[in-house]
Amino acid sequence: MASVAGTYARAFADVVLSSHLDADRSIAExxxxxxxxxxxxxxxxxxxxxxxxxxxxxxxxxxxxxxxxLSTQVRNLAAVLIDHRRVxxxxxxxxxxxxxxxxRLGFAEAEITSARELGDGEKREFESxxxxxxxxxVRAHYGQDASLLGGAVLRIGSTxxxxxxKGQLQRLKEAISS
Length: 178
Prior knowledge:
The model has no long low-confidence stretch (mean pLDDT 92). The protein folds into 2 domains: 2-103, Peroxidase, domain 1; 106-177, no CATH class. The chain has helices at residues 2-18, 23-39, 41-48, 54-68, 72-83, 90-105, 120-134, 165-177, and strands at residues 107-114, 137-144, 152-156, 159-162. It has a 4-stranded mixed sheet. By secondary structure, it is of the alpha+beta class. The relative contact order is 0.12. Helix 2 (23-39) crosses helix 3 (41-48) and helix 2 (23-39) runs antiparallel to helix 6 (90-105).
């Protein structure tokens, strides 16, 4: 499954970049289709049913594309997925596409978990420091975990920077016990 999603994601990333599309808008449009599929089992059955002619499936897609203002490229990707009965791969394709576009556009994904809600200034400061650390633009996701007691934990890819009080106490405990 990962290879199928990766193949479509890489190909569509090529389209997004070569056509100078807004990457965030393209992903949002794909999410629109994914949410329609999640909300409508009937739509999913129609698009996945091999007994229904491809022209009819595309007509339904065209109505949706026109109604929701989808770009031609997003509509075409959806048509390819429908024609090849791979609509069920849409969510993993979107996930892989986000990763692919982030890598190509020089973004670093950062997960920042803090003991309390961070203010806008604190978020900008975190993002600025992460940008300096990675040399990339930052796409940050924030969360809260009161068990950290204070400070924050930063995850960039598989690297974790633990500046939490809980982490410091754990390191102190390990140092004392050894």
